[in-house]
Amino acid sequence: MAIDITMPQLGESVTEGTISRWLKQPGDSISKYEPLCEVATDKVNAEVPATISGTLAEIVTGEGETVEVGHVICRVEEVSEGVDAVDENKESQKAEKVQVKAESPKPATGSMKHRYSPAVLRLAQEHNIDLEQVEGSGRGGRITRKDIQELIDSGKEKTEAPIPMTVTGKAESKGAEQQPSTPAPEEESGDEEIPLTRVRKTIAQRMVTSKQEAPHAWTMLQADVTGLVKLRNKLKDDFKKREGIPLTYMPFFIKAVVDSLKEFPRLNSVWGGDRIILKKRINISIAVATEDALYVPVIKDADEKSILGLAKAVHHLAEKTRAGKLTMDDLSGGTFTVNNTGSFGSVASQPIINHPQAAIISVESIVKQPVIKDDMIAVRDLVNLCLSLDHRILDGLIAGRFLNRVKERVEAYGPDTQI
Amino acid sequence: MPILSYIDAVTLALREEMQKNPRVFVLGEDVGVRGGVFRATHGLIDEFGPERVLDTPLTESAIAGVSIGASVYGMRPVAEMQFADFIMPAVNQIISEAAKMRYRSNNSWHCPLVIRAPYGGGVHGGLYHSQSVEKLFTGIPGLKIVTPSTPYDVKGLLKSAIQDEDPVLFFEHKRCYRLIKGEVPEEDYTLPIGQAEVKREGTDVTVISYGLTLHFALQAAEELQKEGISVHVLDLRTLIPLDKEAVLQAVAKTGKVMIIHEDNLTGGFGGEVSALIAEEAFFELDAPIRRLAGPDVPAMPYSPPLEKEFMLNQEKVTHAIRELAEF
């Protein structure tokens, strides 16, 4: 059994030594502590003593060679008895050690499949990867960042199917959600996220459709409704008593609009892509706001209704809207929209057309103002009438004429008008 | 290009700077006639004379204090602490005077001073000759702390340290002195203080280290390459100022970070690097940040088996990196 003799550590920071001279040659017998060779280091010159007795079997590092501390420099054949026994003992110890090592299992780790690291979550979100579908190569099946990176690099990430929008018409194919040019807004800490309700989504979609599809033009006229104000003031108490509902200005304006629509049927039409469809029925959509949404229920065949009938229809639809009891029938079939923006104090607005109608009118607040009438300054009740029109269907001239007829009609009301 | 040992690079840098600038001088215990106990100043006294190579009394507080005074006066002292362990009596001078001189005098005075100190174990030095002391200073603003790991970096960074206008602690791992050899250009070059270096590109685990343990990491990386584990290795080279950008870039390479140093775990500089990563690279992380460091025991044991147990080595580093790679 040959024992390795190694380069000894001959001082602090000494990491290597150079054999300057061998004092023994292979075959020489050696007694313990007898010098084997001379070694030179940066700091000292020293002799390397034998650590055992025996015969020098082999010189590994020749004279002049420099080797690291711990490197074998020669081998000595040991001569003492009982070597085998010692060796055997050593071997069996070694074996035992190995066995012990093999038997101590690693602590069992539970499944790591759903333990996602920050990097994995970030990458999965950035690349729309469904982590449930990914095989993890980490400990306990954990998905590693490298797993995701390889998936992305291979271009095979399983993207989630986008939630389909309820498409209600061909014209709505360019919905709000499919707007590619809109960058995602940046969210800061403290910002609140409000998930979209179905109604909000529909409103968003319809507004985008209308604004994108219909080239909006806008015009406004001022009407003197001093007579109408007097008329309503005269009638309203009796009306309330008799009919059980308040008399508002709305039915008068709707009546004026409806009568003018009969004169200008072009306003009561819809865009049909390659043609314009003039609607025979006059169904007036009225805008009714609730706290978080806007509905446009429809007064069917408004031209067949009197002021009283219109008042009842408006009241009825408003009640139904606020109670959340509108039916699909209440909401469909409108041909023209009257918007009562004056109800919240507005004096001018640019309404968005209720797609696919041709135009929309806003009735603003009635405000007392000094005006010149018959070369005298007078206090009159004035109202702005705002009209947005689809310029594909209508031009300014016809829209202006229509709006003027509405103005004439509302100005014609007086304290003695019969309703 | 000549191959030099780590300590020869120290001597070369000192010699070149002393030749170039007559204001540069060295001082310390046995640095003159003896040439330093590690031979770092070997031959300097013959070339520059005893006025520029000063053998001092065994009084580290005086070595630091004299250096501070001389530097404020316009000299460029390079002080040697014979062992980093011996720096303790000089700590008051270093922290309360040198580190604060520029700040306290509102920029009127400054200390262009270098303190060299051999640190670290693995040389059978026992309790008083093996300590890692860098963490005692990393939390002191006003000091620069350089911990090179290769002869090339030693020369470039020591020359930068001597030319620096503020106090620099230059920690040399004494086990590296004659163990680590490498090419060192003969020409006059410097390396910027505060710049880390990628020693090896990899994709599975990022190892951040400095000094002797960096070499264990490189050896481990070589070993693990055979198993298909690719290790990215960053040598910090300078602890203060820390090259944050390089650290964050290295983290982004793999998302699995192991910080290795010989200084003990608690309060070691790895904690600071770890905090930086947690604060600024959270979404890059794919595994908990691991630190591999010396154990929290009072000192390096003298007993060889215990010293071996205390010291990191290639096997321990390889094992730890493999564990992290498998996570």
UniProtKB/TrEMBL annotation, chain A:
Gene Ontology MF term list: acetyltransferase activity; lipoic acid binding
EC number, UniProt record: 2.3.1.-
Compositionally biased tracts (Basic and acidic residues): 87-104
Cellular component GO terms, alphabetical: cytoplasm
UniProt domain Peripheral subunit-binding (PSBD): residue ranges: 115-152
Residues annotated as domain Lipoyl-binding: 2-77
Classification via Gene3D superfamilies: 2.40.50.100, Chloramphenicol acetyltransferase-like domain, E3-binding domain
Chain residue ranges for the region called Disordered: 84-113, 152-197
Keywords: Acyltransferase, Lipoyl, Transferase
Necessary cofactors: (R)-lipoate
A Pfam short name: E3_binding
Compositional bias segments (type: Acidic residues): 185-194
UniProt similarity note: Belongs to the 2-oxoacid dehydrogenase family.
PANTHER family per record: DIHYDROLIPOAMIDE ACETYLTRANSFERASE COMPONENT OF PYRUVATE DEHYDROGENASE COMPLEX, LIPOAMIDE ACYLTRANSFERASE COMPONENT OF BRANCHED-CHAIN ALPHA-KETO ACID DEHYDROGENASE COMPLEX, MITOCHONDRIAL
Name assigned to this protein: Dihydrolipoamide acetyltransferase component of pyruvate dehydrogenase complex
Origin species: Melghirimyces thermohalophilus
From TrEMBL, chain B:
InterPro entries the record matches: THDP-binding, Transketo_C/PFOR_II, Transketolase-like_Pyr-bd, Transketolase_C
MF-aspect GO terms: oxidoreductase activity
Residue ranges constituting the Transketolase-like pyrimidine-binding domain according to the UniProt record: 4-179
Key words, A-Z: Oxidoreductase, Thiamine pyrophosphate
Cofactor(s) recorded in Swiss-Prot or TrEMBL: thiamine diphosphate
Database matches in PANTHER family: PYRUVATE DEHYDROGENASE E1 COMPONENT BETA SUBUNIT, PYRUVATE DEHYDROGENASE E1 COMPONENT SUBUNIT BETA
Protein name according to UniProt: 2-oxoisovalerate dehydrogenase E1 component beta subunit
